[in-house]
Amino acid sequence: MKSFDLSTVAQSYKDAFSKYGHDPRSLFWLKGRQGLRFQVLCEMGIGQDSSVMDVGCGFGDFFHYLVERFPNFSGKYLGIDILEEFIRECRSSINDPRAEFEVWDLLKTDRDETRSYDYVVASGTFNLRIGDNHKDFVKAMLEKMFQLCVKGVAVNFMSTYVDYSNESSFHASPEEMFALAKSFTKRVSLRHDYMPYEFTIYVYKDDRIAENNVFRDYLWISEKDLY
To answer: What are the phi and psi torsion angles at 41 (to 5°)?
Structure first.
């Protein structure tokens, strides 16, 4: 598997964490929109009994969101990150048997065939460029995430449809990400309706098509229509 140098990005996060501590600025986020991003990730189909892998989990905020959204959350959550500092912070601040945290670089660890998750998500994970081969990195990561999911992958990106961009940031083309996702599965959804400069893509594992030419998850709806 092709290797990627994440040292520059990792150092940027380490420097920010040293400066700001447990704060959104350590993740290069601004306050006020995280809940909306998480809501859109969940709307792929994540429910109270889902198992979820959170790639680039930061401080485990998505787990907090899950237990607030689903008061009877009975699923499992695994947060992974390449920064030991973030994982230590998660383990010290979240004491819940439903949540686990690991230092894990997906592209440097062989897949454990006994581990899979209903949904694999990533929020803001690809916002900082690792270099000129960042698109290759995103493709490799999405391939790995798709391998590990049972039901689907949900990932958000900063969009190329912006008025301003920073050279250190990665703005993904919605069209390119849609085409990439379609190379994994026939069933894809792209959401560019909740923020003007960001989007989320859903990549579904089950893309079986019923006889009436609809995806099987929607069969019960189509059968109501006689025409």
So the answer is: -60, -45
Residues 51, 66: Cα–Cα separation, whole Å: 11
Instruction: Determine, yes or no, domain membership for 25.
Output: yes
How far is 174 from 208, CA to CA, in rounded Å? 24
Let me know if residue 194 belongs to a domain.
yes
- In the chain, the number of structural domains is 1
Could you tell me which of 189, 211, 122, 187 has the C-alpha nearest to residue 158? 122
Query: Is 206 among the domain residues?
Result: yes
Domain of 86 in residue numbering reads as: 7-222
| Residues 128, 12 contacting (CB under 8 angstroms) | yes
pTM of the model: 0.93
Percent of the chain with pLDDT over 70: 93
The pLDDT tens digits of the residues spanning 33-47 come to 899 999 999 999 999
Residue 2, domain member (yes or no): no
CA 51 to chain centre: 13
